């Protein structure tokens, strides 16, 4: 179990210096800083645009209202002068007569009573029409220059909005850099945390804000995992060290007893079985320690071919299969790969893979089922014609402590997990093929990169 934790720890919190170079996919997603900057700019654009539009609209409405009042007062004043017999002095600007009569130019006929803004011949005119006793009085004012000034003021507002966006981008960049820089620093420290001394606290380098809280949470989680990993490493090392001495005593005692000529044949057979079991236990301890360390090579292990190991394993498991009413058989695909000078592999690792796959098939396939072990020079498979496995359960089968419903009380749920860890350590590829009612097959490809000939 702790090997998986160690692997996760290395994956998330360390950068392996000796790891082979791999192709890292290019991250095309924008970073947090870009998100913050563009959010700042877009919010400024939205708020600035709304405020600018509201301001321009309000000013225009206010000016139109004031102009309507001013033009109304001007019409009353000019009309009073005209009715008093005075010359209003506004040629082509002041008209009076029956509504829609020829007293008005063509383009001013048909207007409703009230204030109007008209454009003619490139000029902008404000027009006020007021009816009194069946007579329409109409006054014009040329507001072309005023409207041009208004247009300039509108462009000034747009320019101000653009400047505010530029300032928002600059200020957003500075503020984002101030926020993101500690995060990038923390991410770099997290990536190199494995090279730091145990129980190092990153939160001490940060203020007690959200980033400091994030660093503190990481420290607590990482240090707890580090302590758990250290405890499990020490436990594994202690177990491996302490078990070797009694195993060596048992092995030595058995060898001394085997030298006794007075033993009966059945006694010698029992002692030889004990010796074989002790040697197997020693190899298993070596395998577990190798997986725990993660980087040990297999040069010290004895070598054997896949077919030879399969014959030995099937022979050992046939009696148990028979007791369970099952048929266990071996198929050697010698036609695919010649059997002359087959590749050699670490015998304890092959034993661990094959024995756990066969045991798993015998435990879960059910009585009356046939289990077939098929091997070639670099490929093995263990298949049964049992009930199969639900697809929803298949992704978790190689996880530790996952037990099937038919495994029995002695099934600890670590057999397939051990197979997975051995294959991962050696670079072998293991795959599961199963469907309800169609049986189960587990394939292991011993890739050439891990083959020693």
From TrEMBL:
Histidine kinase domain: which residues?
A: 238-450
One annotated GO molecular function is: phosphorelay sensor kinase activity
One Gene Ontology cellular component:
plasma membrane
Residues that span the membrane, as ranges = 36-57, 152-175
Q: What is its main location?
A: membrane
Pfam family name, one: HAMP
List locations, semicolon-separated. Membrane
| InterPro entries hit by this protein | HAMP_dom, HATPase_C_sf, HATPase_dom, His_kinase_dom, HisK_dim/P_dom, HisK_dim/P_sf, Sig_transdc_His_kin-like_C, TCS_sensor_his_kinase
Q: Tell me the ranges covered by the HAMP domain, including all copies.
A: 177-230
Q: Which EC number(s) does UniProt give?
A: 2.7.13.3
Name the domain of life this protein comes from: Bacteria
SMART domains referenced in this protein's UniProt entry, alphabetically: HAMP, HATPase_c, HisKA
Asked if RNA-binding is a keyword of the record, the answer is no
Key word Phosphoprotein present in the record? yes
What is this enzyme's class at the first EC digit?
A: transferase
Kindly state which reaction or reactions the protein catalyses.
ATP + protein L-histidine = ADP + protein N-phospho-L-histidine
Assigned keywords, A-Z: Kinase, Membrane, Phosphoprotein, Transferase, Transmembrane, Transmembrane helix, Two-component regulatory system
**Name assigned to this protein:** histidine kinase
Q: Provide the species name.
A: Pigmentiphaga aceris
